[in-house]
Specification:
Layout (H helix, E strand, L loop, with lengths): L3 H7 L6 H9 L1 H13 L3 E2 L1 H13 L6 H4 L1 E12 L3 E2 L4 E9 L2 E8 H9 L7 E10 L4 E14 L18 E10 L3 E4 L6 E10 L5 E6 H7 L7 E12 L2 E6 L4 E4 L1
Parallel strand pairs: 1-2, 5-7, 11-13
Antiparallel strand pairs: 2-4, 2-6, 3-4, 4-5, 6-7, 8-10, 8-12, 9-10, 10-11, 12-13, 12-14
Helix pairs in contact: 1-2, 2-3, 3-4
């Protein structure tokens, strides 16, 4: 447990000694201070946003977004990045920040959505996002024209070597060079209602190539790449077919050209 001096240093002197002493003696006090930071439009983290939104709901706030939206600044670790897409209103990119059990979604639009890929923001990096709009009813954050994003800490990217992949693994991150890129196809959904995009590729690192099957948005992105492109794929799953390992990426994965 941190003492008051360490907590004051962590908050760069922006809290009083009495607040720091309270936090040192009670972990719940820190959540209250983070929620207060959100109220005052200071920078807080995902836990502070969750605490603040919970307080607004507890006092019986209206669920009218236009009346109850708040502009906040948030800094925390990237937990998950989704593929970008065009939802009819231009480029959109959803990311999730925080730690498991205390995460929030941020919806980014336009240039700031593209910035996630151009700056190669990945799981584990810490980002500071200013001027995002919080809807306490959903706890979602959404960018506006003056929203800014800055990477404050770049984590060392951790990926699982291809030779260490095992059947049944989920939510793993991998990287390597594309050895083959197949043709994008549309196949019928199992439900029989519509079609879904799929592309078969092969990826390799220092070892033998491994089969890579990509679906939906992951397929659309990978199909625009060429052999020898280096890629990072986050939140994949691993299965086995005829005794051989296959990597699967879908709508909930993220494909990034390095």
């Amino acid at each position: 447990m941190q003492n008051a001096e360490e907590i004051i240093d962590r908050y760069s002197g922006m809290i009083t000694r009495s607040m720091a002493e309270s936090m040192a003696s009670s972990p719940d006090s820190e959540s209250e201070i983070k929620a207060d930071s959100a109220r005052r439009n200071d920078t807080t983290d995902a836990a502070g946003i969750i605490q603040f939104a919970g307080m607004k709901r507890k006092v019986g706030m209206s669920l009218n977004r236009s009346e109850d939206a708040y502009t906040v600044n948030v800094e925390d670790t990237v937990y998950r990045v989704f593929n970008s897409g065009d939802r009819g209103k231009g480029i959109r990119r959803d990311i999730v920040i925080g730690r498991e059990g205390a995460t929030i979604r941020i919806i980014l639009h336009g240039k700031i959505a593209e910035q996630i890929d151009t700056e190669k923001v990945c799981r584990g990096d810490k980002v500071l996002i200013r001027n995002v709009v919080l809807d306490p009813a959903t706890m979602d954050l959404e960018s506006r024209p003056d929203t800014s994003l800055m990477m404050t800490t770049q984590a060392k990217a951790k990926t699982v070597p291809l030779q260490e992949l095992r059947e049944g693994m989920k939510n793993v991150d991998i990287s390597g060079k594309l050895a083959e890129v197949g043709i994008l196809k549309q196949v019928s959904k199992l439900s029989g209602n519509g079609t879904v995009a799929v592309v078969n590729c092969t990826i390799r690192d220092a070892d033998s190539p491994v089969s890579l099957i990509l679906w939906e948005s992951s397929a659309n992105i990978a199909s625009k790449m060429v052999p020898n492109d280096t890629v990072r794929i986050e939140f994949c799953s691993v299965r086995s077919k005829n005794g051989l390992i296959e990597i699967v990426a879908n709508e909930y994965s993220r494909v990034l050209k390095l």
